[in-house]
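Review form for a predicted model. The reviewer records the input and the model, then writes brief findings.
Reviewer: anonymous (R2)
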Amino acid sequence: MKKILSHFSLHLIFAVLLFSFLFLSRVSYMLIYHQRIDSLEMIGKVLMYGMKFDSMILSYILAIPIFLSVIAFKRTLRLTGKFISLYYIFFLLFVIFIELCTIPFINEYDTRPNRIAIEYLIYPKELLSMLAKGFWMEAVLAFSVLGVCIYFIKRNYKKLPAFTNIHWVSKLVVYPIILFFLFWGARGNLTKPRPDNPSVAAFSNDQLVNALGLNSFYTILYAAQGLQGEENVSKMYGEFPLDESYQRVKKLMAVQETDFSGEKYSLVHKQKSVSPRSKPCNIVIFLQESLGAEYTGCLGNSKLTPMLDSLANLGLLYTNMYSTGTRSVRGIEAVFTGFMPTPSREVVKLGKSQQNFFSIAALLKGIGFETSFIYGGMSNFDNMGSFFSGNGIRQIIDETDYESPVFKSTWGVSDEDLVQKAHETYLSYGDKPFFSLIFSSSNHVPFEFPDGRIQLFEQPKNTVNNAIKYADYAIGKFFRLARSADYYDHTVFVVVADHNTRVYGDMLVPVHKFHIPAVVVAPGINNSKYTKLCSQLDLVPTLLDLAGVDCEIPAFGHDLVQLADSVPGRSFMQFYSSFAYRVENKMIVLQPGSVFKQFELSADGQAIEQAIDREFLNDARAYQVVASHQYQKMLYRVK
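Model under review:
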C-alpha cells in the first residue's frame, strides 16, 4: 500500500493543490459578489457545481500523467517523474493566472473569461496597450501573485517526492479503477449521451451566479472549442422542424406573403419605399462605441450628450431600441447586414459570410452607390477589413490613412479625426450617391481622448463618463461639418450605438443594459419619436425605405416606416450563449442544453419568471433555426 501511495504522490499533491486553490478562489468570488447570492441554497449549489466542474478539468489534466505512469518502466522513471512534475507546475500556474484575471474580466463583462478573452489574444498590440493603460493595477497584482507562486515552487521543487514505479500486477488492479473515475470526472456524468456543459450549472436566473459554479480554465476551454465555427443550434437549443421554422419567421417578419420570392427556404422579399424622394438619398450609419441609453439625456437623465440630444430634437428618435449583443462586431452584424444574432461568432468572423453575404452596402453598391467603411483603428481588428471588402465596401479607411492626426490612442485616432476624414471623403464623391459606415472608438477602455475639447464631467480624466462626453463632442463636430456641405440635404443619417458599456445585472439576460439610443436625421423628418419596441435589426430595411430605395432584401428586420400598429414590438438579444426573444413585455430565454425560461418584464425592470408559452418558445426557436440554416446553406443573399 505504501508503494502505491508513493507511486501516486505527485498526482495527489497536484490534485489537492488545484482543488484547494479553485475552492478558495470560488469562495473569494462569492464574497466579492455576495450581493448577487441571496440564499444558503444558492451558496450550496455554487459549491456543488464547482466541485463537479473542478473535477472535470482535473480529470482532463490528469489524463497524460496517468497514461505515462501506466507505461513507465525502471529506466524512464527519473525522466517521467521530472516531466510529470513540470507538467503539473505549468498547469497549476496557468490555472492560478487565469483565476487571477477573472475578477477584472467579471467587472467588465459580468461573467467568467470566455470567447471574448480568447479573441483579444489575437490582437496583442491592442491588448497590451489596454492592459497597460486601463488595467495596469490588476495586471501588476496578477503578475506579482504569480511571481510569488513561482518563487514558492522554486524553493520547494526539490522537496517533491520522487516518482516511483509499482508492480505490473498492481497496475492491472489499480489503474482500471482510476481510469474509470477519470472518465466519469471528465464527462461529469455516466448516464447522459453527452458530457456535462455549462447548462448543467444554470440553476439561477442570474447568469453570473451560474458562472461562479464553473471555473475559468473550463470556460476558456469551452469557448476555444466553440471558436471552430458555427455553433450547432440544434445541439444548443434543441431540435425544431425546419419547414415550420421558415413558416413562423416569414409570418413574424410582417411582410406580405406575395412579396416573398416564392422559394421555400429564402427570406428574400420585395420592399417598396413609401418615402417620397426624387432620387435615392445617401445613407450614413454613425456607429457609436459603447453608448447605453442611460448615458444620454434624450433617453436617460444624463448631461453627457448635449449634441446627440439636440439631434434627437431635430430628427427621429427611437426611444425603445435594443442592441442585439454586447460587442461591436455584433452591432456591425445587425446594422450592416440585418442578420439575426446566434450563439455562434458574429458573421463578421465566420467563414461562409466573408463574400456575397447580404449587406446594405452590397445592395447599394449594385445600384451605383460609392461605399465606404471609415474607422480610426486598424481594420484588421475583429476581421472587419476582410469582411467589409468581400461584402460591398469599396473604400476602407483605417488608422494608416490618417496624416498627422490630432490624437492617437490605444484604439487608433480620435473621434474628431474620424469625423473630419469622413467629411472629406464624402466631399470627394461629388454628386455620386454614397453609403458609409463610420465606426467610432474613443469611448473604449482606457478612455483616451485629446485635452481641451470638453469640460470634464469628473476626475480623473480617463473615465467612461468623460469619454462619452468627448464622443458626443465629435458627433456635434461631424454634423457641423456636414451641414456646411451639399451632401447634407440628400443624406439619411443615423447615429446608433453598437452596444452598451458594461452589460451586467442579476438576470439571465440583463435587458435594461441592451437599451441603446438611435437617432435618424434626414430630409423631411422633424422632431418625432418612435416609441414601439424595436431592434438594431430593423435599421437596414428602415433606412432603405427612408432613403427612397425600392429593393429586394433577405433582412430579418421590420421596416419601421411601414410597420402596422397591430404588429407588436419585439427585440432579439444574444448574451453569450443565451438568446432572448422579447415581444413587448414578454421574454423567452433559450439556454444551452435546451433549457428555456420565460419572464414578464415589469415596469421597474424586474424579470418575473412565468410558465412557458409553447407558441412563444417555438417562435424564438424558429428564428434560431432559420438563421443557422441561412448561414450554413449560404442563402442569406440576393441573387
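Findings: The longest strand covers residues 282-288.
Further findings: The chain is about 45% helix and 15% strand.
Recommendation: see findings above.
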